[in-house]
Amino acid sequence: MLRLSDISTYYGQIRALDLVNLVVEPGEIVAIIGANGAGKTTLLNTVCGILNARHGEVYLEGKPISDLSAEAIVRLGVSHVPERRQVFSTMSVIDNLLLGAYHRRDGAVRQDVEQMFEFFPILQKRQKQAAGTLSGGEQQMLAIARGMMSRPKLLMLDEPSVGLAPLMVREIMRIIADLRARGTTILLIEQNAKAALGVADRGYVLETGRIVLEGTAKELMADEGVQKAYLGKGNKVQLARCRADTDTYACIDDESIKSCVMCPARNGNGSVLTSGGALVL
Prior knowledge:
Number of helices: 10
Low-confidence stretches: 235-254, 257-262, 264-281
Largest sheet: 6 strands, mixed
Mean pLDDT: 84
Strand content: 15-25%
Radius of gyration: 20 Å
Order of helices and strands: EEEHEEHEHHHHEHEHEEHHEE
Distance between the termini: 36 Å
Helix content: 25-40%
Structural class: alpha/beta
Strand order of the largest sheet: 6-7-8-3-9-10
């Protein structure tokens, strides 16, 4: 469905993404986790055409799309639900939904609005309200529903849990799983690693613009480095690449770290097993 090949994106002279490679297969939920400033939003903005990559290529269904406008990419079936909802606050709920289908010329838009009301009953109750009067969780539902109004092949969600209460986070993740069950392919950006990996099939860890680890959701949840960095278990550490210009590993001696899927620098006696990434306090 989606493939990023050696993508590097810059803000002026600052490199925000560094040779990122990523694949999303049809029908998957793929999560990208990472801290603030890791480059997660930049990645989505590069895919959807808001930013242009300086190096590499983005492919959708095998065809390059990096040179296309954001509008053209939407027409190809990519929908982007931005961070912090970004609903049109002074417009009604139903007008927000209709804007999600602004490029469509078929006669099924109203039918899809009714489907969104079936999927999100609270939006039907609030359909004439200004979107800005909704709660945070309701606005997130509206943002997702608006994204679905374009009938996307790929739905990209940027931090859908941010600012929401735990109960609403669980509800949003349930909705994401239900959307996949209905056939939508999803690329999910999250700081909340536990919630994201709980619904994802596979995941990537992005740090300082680089993919430092990838695997199935189960593998990432079990990884000691991910647990400490993103799941709140043990001392807080971050995943990082080894120093490219030396023979030493970037990890500081920490006897509590026995292994790491990305860089198993210890096998019980401290010996180095592989090269690659490492753990940094």
